[in-house]
Amino acid sequence: MEGLPIDAVAEQASDEIGLIHAIPGRLRFRVGGLRRRPDRAAALARRLQALPDVRESSVSALTGSVTLRCPPGLPADALQRRISAAWRETLDPPPRSLGAAAAAEDSADAPHAPANEDARTWHTLSVADVVAALGTDGASGLTPEEARSRLQRHGQNRLAEPRRASRLAIAGRQFANLPTGLLAGSAVVSLATGGVLDAAVTLAVVLANAGLGFVTESGAEEAIARMTARRPYRVPVRRGGAEIEIDSLEVVPGDLLSLRPDVLVAADARILTADRLTANEALLTGESEAQPKSAAALADPRLPLADHDNMVHHGSFIVTGRGSAAVTATGQATELGRIEAMASTAATPETPLSRDLGRLGRQLVLLSLTVCGVVFVAGFLRGHGLLQMLKSSVALAVAAVPEGLPTIATTTLAIGLRQMRGHGVAIRRLQAVEGLGAMQVLCLDKTGTITENRMQAAAFAVGGEAASEHQPDAREMDATAPGRRLLEAAALCSEAEPPGAGGGPRGSATECALLEAALAAGLDVTALRHCWPTRDVRYRDETHRYMVTRHEGDSGVPRTAMKGDPRQVLELCASLALPAGSEPLDEAARGRIAAEIDAMSGRGFRVLGFADGDGDRFDWLGCIGLKDPVRPEAREVIAALHRAGVRPLMITGDQAATAEAVAHEIGLSGNEPLNVLDARAIDRMDAEVLVGLARRTHVFARVPPSRKLDIVRALQRSGLVVGMTGDGFNDAPALKAADIAIAVGGGGATAARDVADAIIENGDLRGIVEGVEQGRTIASNIRKAVHFMISTNLSEILVVLAETLNPGDQLESPMEMFWLNLVTDVLPGLGLALEPPEREVMSLPPRDPKEPILTMRELRHAGLESFVLSGGTMLAHFYGLSRYGPGPHTRTLTLTSLVTAQLLHAFACRFDRFVPLGGRALFGNRTLNRAVGASFALQTLPLFFPPVRRLLGIAPARPMDFAIAALAGAGAFLVNETLLATWSRRGDTGWAARLPGQRGIGMQ
């Protein structure tokens, strides 16, 4: 109904109000749009109850129905009009946000997330209205019978399983490209013209490449499926007045959840009762600190998810306190389900290399078909037989398409995948390895990615001193020292339990961090609490934002400890603790302490103030600053990304001040001034403005999940290749939409791992840098292999074309072309693709994604090189014609010359710029050396092994033939090296060499 005038909406709603059944004095109506709208259900119930003649009304948001009890004989149509009028008064469609508009635009034809508007409005209702709308009992919960009925009606509390590629789909992907289709077509033509062996060899090449890709990708998919498996768990609920534990799949709307520490929240629920209740919602909101919860209704229906203080959501867990909550949504209807559905509708873009190889394959197919047509017509007009020209055209098709390219790309990516696995990074798709290297922007989630997602006491301001990150050591202090008293107050004014066997402290993240600080300082917390047992506790509330504990020693001496909001604690203190004793707090001292509190807050710490006393008079002991510690490797990783030309930016649900402090700590903006944007401003922002801001902003704070998606899309619309890291449910939609999705940590949210292309299992961010280096090396090396194959395959086409146009010449056979590609394509190409990383690879910016795998300049160079290779070969060919005439001996010389020239050309393709000849420069790649040596060894088979020679239709080579072939190959190599030296002097070489002040990739 969104976008219609209010009157039109009301008229449509009236049409959707219908009578379900009527008996005297009791009527039930269906109300369109009421289902799953508890706010409107409560408003409608209030209006109906005020109507005359209505004795009792019941409005259900679960069933979307209204039941009225009224005097018998009252006309149903009159009641229907009254319901329609009351319903019209509840209609108030909310304005459409940028994010909602973008989502609607981007997914108009995609399956939508389930309507979940009730999750946005339950927090505005009173406890009584919630209980009434859900049709449950706020004390005893649902009856077992009603729970079973609702389970049948609503289904299991299960999130949709992510779609995983089937084995058949993975296998199909290996054949879904034009070069493979052309090779398969050439095999069919060979078979139809009697070339059974030719067809078998072609199909063997196709199947070998497909098999390699299938084994690698299916293995990665299965490994990630094992990591992301979901398992049900037990949930405490109240049913029929008794607390029981049920399977999480059996939770239904209206169930009463029992909330206590360590309980995993199995569904979205509205809190009914709360006693010092806090919940960790980091996986949903990105905020690492446990959030206090209450049962009070909230007024603003448009509050962000992180501010729903009276709700708990699926995916969170209880940290402290106790309470109860009525389930409002289960399964896909939860916030978690909505986020996952949002992620499922986001399309995953192709990586630049995958896009380039696909484009190159299509261009090669078009070139192949064109050349085949030209050769076929030219040969036929010159008197060659139809069958002979058909076979020759098939041979040219094989020559034009580098059969080894898919194998080389797949093998190289698979090796990169295996190497990344050794660094603790699991890769789902082969192309994701290259995608890491293509990244231009990396969006980093703060909580759990940059930080460790735990609280740590990191700064101490003892008494009136300035804050220091040096922790006090209680072992070096006497009992009255302010530092020791500060740590003792932190340990006493706490409900966290000391570490047990094999574990850490238990309690809220804040109190556990304080307890760990006291233990690290050498305090015996257990002995301290034994000496000063707790007699009374006053918990913090909305007015008094501090906690006070009263203790009493064996001698009956009282002791009081206080912690909380430092300004309120300071206000309650009369004196300042000093090493020599206490002195009254004057205004100057209070001003200095307040300034230090502000300074600590400005550095991103959560600051707590501490005091102790005898209950009537308190001494100010100091402050402790807590924070979610940055991962040790984070600063190193950010610096490496800056050097590599990858722009890191932070997207977090946390407060702007906290995010800014973390950004400064890790050097996020490099040498630029740090720009921070509160995501709440995006609501009022035009989409094009966001595109411009996204390129200049370093930190986006207070970002809900849908806005993360908007930011990623804005960066992509500006033409950038975007990587995204995350570990929470709230990251899943943005991860899915990013060009490369990276889930950090094996213990993160299943939703994040489900959509990730790469998973850093050990959480070490250096895996990202390893991935960037590996991806860039692979992309660079595949470009070298493509350059080599384009130039060598073009030389084969030119040789066959020259033979076709030469009167009386004998063409190369299809089997010769197969053999030529087998010997000179795969092994040397693979050797080039396995070049080790160059020193410059992480000091160059990423390649422009709009630039093809080979630029027009590079293609011109490859074309000139192919003319040189074919020219040297044709000189040897014409020598053979003059000595032997057309026939097997000449074809032997031609084949050997072309093989020699192409194999030597592999060494020239190692570099983008000219490198003076020398042993290290020429033979620095041992893999290539072995590959070229193996190819030369293979070429000896047809020369010295009669069965292979007969298969190719050539003759034995003579000593002079070897000398001519060597001269032709070496001459072509030297000419091409001279051309490369000329291009280098002009600066007319590849992408890396065109960068000012940079040496080309491949320079030693």
From TrEMBL:
Q: What PROSITE patterns does the database record attribute to this sequence?
A: ATPASE_E1_E2
Superkingdom, according to UniProt? Bacteria
**What species is given as this protein's source?**
Minwuia thermotolerans
Query: Ranges of Low complexity compositional bias?
Result: 100-114
Q: What is the lineage of its organism?
A: Bacteria, Pseudomonadati, Pseudomonadota, Alphaproteobacteria, Minwuiales
**Under the GO molecular function aspect, what terms does this record hold?**
ATP binding; ATP hydrolysis activity; P-type ion transporter activity
Tell me the Pfam families matching this sequence.
Cation_ATPase, Cation_ATPase_C, Cation_ATPase_N, E1-E2_ATPase
Name the UniProt key words of this record, in alphabetical order: ATP-binding, Membrane, Nucleotide-binding, Translocase, Transmembrane, Transmembrane helix
Which residues span the membrane? 364-382, 394-417
Record's protein name: Cation-transporting P-type ATPase N-terminal domain-containing protein
Q: In its keyword annotation, does this UniProt entry include Cell membrane?
A: no
**What does UniProt give as GO cellular component?**
membrane
Compartments, as annotated in UniProt: Membrane
Which portions of the sequence form the region Disordered?
89-116, 138-159
Residues in domain Cation-transporting P-type ATPase N-terminal? 121-195
Q: How does it sit in the membrane?
A: Multi-pass membrane protein
